Protein 1
Amino acid sequence: MKRQASLIYLLVLCSFSNGQSSPEIVPVQRGFSGSGVTTRYWDCCKPSCAWQIPQTNVKTPVESCQIDGVNPIDFNDQSGCDDNGVAYMCNDQQAWVINDTLSYGFVAASFSGGSDLSQCCHCVLLSFQGRLLGKHLLAQITNTGSDLYQNHFDIAIPGGGLGIFKRGCMTQWNTTETGWGQEIGGVTSEAECSELPAALQRGCDWRFEFLEGVDNPDVLFQEVECPAELTAITKCVSLS
Ligand SMILES: *[C@@H]1O[C@H](CO)[C@@H](O)[C@H](O)[C@H]1NC(C)=O
Ligand SMILES: *[C@@H]1O[C@H](CO)[C@@H](O)[C@H](O)[C@H]1NC(C)=O
């Protein structure tokens, strides 16, 4: 008993000895992998994996929120990016830092080019290349995009640009038609993150701190098991 307790103590001590956590990352056997590209977006829209439709192959869709970005809304409610829509991206579906080389977050993804619902709620480890070599984003796939290429990961970053949907952030946060910063790419400095609602500033800052402001870094990607921290936020688990 005592021995076991001290072993556990030792393990805990090891994983936090540098003041940083090192969660286990588990690759999925025969999961998808390859090299890909990234972009960034935050259009405030209900994500595509948040519908109760067979193509998403999920038990429960990704949670979407009421206009406050906090309280959940029914899966059948129309997206706030469509006329009379009331469902929006939840504020907490933005990235955060786990340790100096690892963050958790959420992405829209396409493996085939164009809208691709087949991998909804699967998780992927993105290993950044170039200047960010050695840094990783472990992300759950919550969204798709008709404007995405093959092996393309569009990282959910508040203030990262609206992309093709203009209406969501206007109705949810009273932004102008171009949102925060530029329509494509969003704000251009961390100082501009202060223009975002307080609830979204953390994810905006993440781009300039963890991602060091690097513009659309290339990645290697590998499917991994979803950490409980991510599925606790989206409530979504894939069936396949
Ligand atoms: C961050 O966590 C990952 C995954 O456990 C680990 O491989 C890596 O060494 C950690 N990085 C730091 C700087 O602690
Ligand atoms: C947006 O503007 C409307 C009307 O002026 C106001 O009622 C609402 O509180 C504003 N929302 C935010 C998030 O500022």
Protein 2
Amino acid sequence: MSLSDELFGRGKKVMPGGVNSPVRAFGSVERNPLFIEKASGSKIYDADGNEYIDFVNSWGPLILGHCNQDIVESVKHTIINGFSFGLSTEREVLIAELICEIVPNVEMIRMVNSGTEAVMSALRLARGFTGRDKVIKFEGCYHGHCDSMLVKAGSGALTSGEPDSAGIIKATAKYTLIAEYNNLESVEKLFKENKDEIACVIVEPVAANMGVIPPKEGFLEGLRKLCDENKALLIFDEVITGFRIALGGAQEYFGVSADIVTFGKIIGGGMPVGAYGGKREIMERISPVGNVYQAGTLSGNPIAMAAGYKQLTMLRDNKDILSTINMNAEYIANEMRCIIEKYNVSAQVNQVGSLISVFFAEEEVDSYKTAVKSDKKVFSRFFNSMLDNGIYIAPSQFEAMFISFAHEGGDFKKFIEVFEKSISELR
Ligand SMILES: *Cc1c(COP(=O)(O)O)cnc(C)c1O
């Protein structure tokens, strides 16, 4: 028995499913999960010493790869002066100034400890600001695990086949209205049926939790217009896209403005951080200035801020980082398409910036409905073959691959070789 298997066996006795987050259990790819010992650059090493090229990067935060030396140094330097004070520090001002400088329409920001917390707080703020109760979300989009967002959710909820969680008060779910991603009419209809009741529309500007699905031309612009016409706020959940598809995120990439933006993942450089920001007029409704209450014992934690600030500074100061990883992603996505064509396998490759998904589906994937037609059994065979050959991608059909700045030529060469082998074996 491998050490990973043994740890999983012990873990299962004391942790539900042996894990602290569902997708780590590898249930949908029918094998025991990995237990990781350490990582460096583009590689992770499991408890048994196996090496994998990591195309997940902790689900996105590590855009510079594992153990970036500058970030490690910054954390080390900070940690010796205290773990947490429950009082403000210069670093919190610095990271807030930096984010307001690089993200359009963000004049103020509040740090929290996860993407879930950022979304939960942003929704409260939108409701407090507008005095309205209802929110529109999209089928297959994932916004963390707060009650109102676990309705038709993506990511692990979708992977497990249960996009609606048990334990959500029916009255709560009633205030979450579900529209179809890339379908403006479905949004317009909800606005008509719930006139003057909608506080906000929340969207992943690039859907990345039902696999990667780019917004169709005009979709985000249309949401902006509908929100303006109905005096509702538009929330871009940029927990994945922020600081990734462009330095200023999806607002910069697509040229569409949001009222509130939520962040997570990259913003913490691998530490547990989330944030939400927007125009002063909206953000000053938050306590202690306004009456929308939101607080956090460890929010703005000095070590987390040190890691996040260093990573964001590096992305700002070296514009080549994002352009390089975007180019590399485009290159391997094209290689993947050629291989799929060569072996005549039913599969689609979607790519936006450094995010890629391969769907084992016959038709183009541009919506939740087309995404869920993908063949999960085929994905499972594909995943297992990739992993057995040293390539770690997300253990689910409905997640993204994340390219980092630590991935180099040799990593891509090996990825493409193993991809070809794995695809050829599917026939
Ligand atoms: C990961 C994710 C979240 C939740 O973030 P956590 O830090 O896991 O709570 C929210 N929204 C999106 C778009 C995400 O990808």
Protein 3
Amino acid sequence: MGVISELDKNYIAGTYKRFPVEIVGGDGSIAYSSDGKEYIDMGSGIGVTSFGYSDKIWRDAVTSQLSKVQHTSNLYYTEPCARLAEMLCLKTGMKKVFFSNSGAEANECAIKAARKYTAEKKGAEYSDIITLENSFHGRTLTTLAATGQDSFHKLFTPLTPGFYHTPANDINALRECVKSHKSAAVMIECVQGEGGVIALDADFVKAARDITREEGIPLIIDEVQTGNGRSGYLYSYMAYGIVPDIVSTAKGLGGGLPIGATLLGDLTCGVFSFGDHGSTFGGNPVCCAGALSILERLDDSFLSQVREKSKYVFERLSSADGVESVSGAGLMIGVKTVRAAADVVGECIEKGVLCLTAKDKVRLLPALNIPFETLKKALDIIASVAAIK
Ligand SMILES: *Cc1c(COP(=O)(O)O)cnc(C)c1O
């Protein structure tokens, strides 16, 4: 390993266990390392670089905005921010957008919107947020409280109070949990990402919609990882035939630049007044210009190609030696291997493929536009590593 990793080890806080690869460039789904190697990137920066490295359309959109205005704060109007909000609303039917800079912030905003909505409607004591066991909603103290995995909580308590977790896919438990608390909202991921790439049952998601409607409280869908085409649909809730009241998204939206968005539907679009929330960087024109260039390409024909590639991955890996099961949706895929996932990922790197893990699974989040041939090559390598006894 070289100078970069030495510096990193000396000066970067010890939160990240990095792989021994210094990435210095890339083209589409291929990453270049400082030692002159090429890797097929099956992680896309954790589902962020939706169109891969150095995508021409995205790069042109970003650099053209960069040469005009890089930042103004939210005291002034800028075109990319307004146009992106319009496009998000036109494509989803949601009514208003709040921009931030990350998934955790998008969820913070969703939680604030839900708490204010329900406080005004039912009383300030209705402040509890119901989320699922095994969920992941972020790393701030509030979104950690929302995250239903104790391993993330320890030694960081007290977390923000008012968060309760109920098991996924248990409709009666969800109803009981909502009714037995002073609930302000239910928040779920339709496909649990960090929790192991597990798609929720359709009946359960529909029941979450019905129960929240009966209680008169917002349903929040966390589309931070699943959103922006990742699930094979523009947003994963669309495959479930429901309409949420609040949607949070981030990761893949900016194509590689930090942006979060919280979309407010009919029920909640009027909830915020001047001063209720804010962000210095939120709606940054360069990030929004990049996001526009991503979102405008996520049309029906592109999304059906994502679903086709997904089908290929499921078929190729389900029948592979050493693979126990394949889960997920779209190009958000969890592979349960007989071998330990970390060993498979480590050996895939040696063979030129970058993969992720989620819990005990190998997780694949390739760029949405990964060429079929490149995808096939990566899957052949992953399958060959999984098959080693
Ligand atoms: C990654 C993720 C987050 C947190 O996003 P950050 O940008 O890291 O703050 C929240 N929710 C889900 C579902 C995620 O996958």
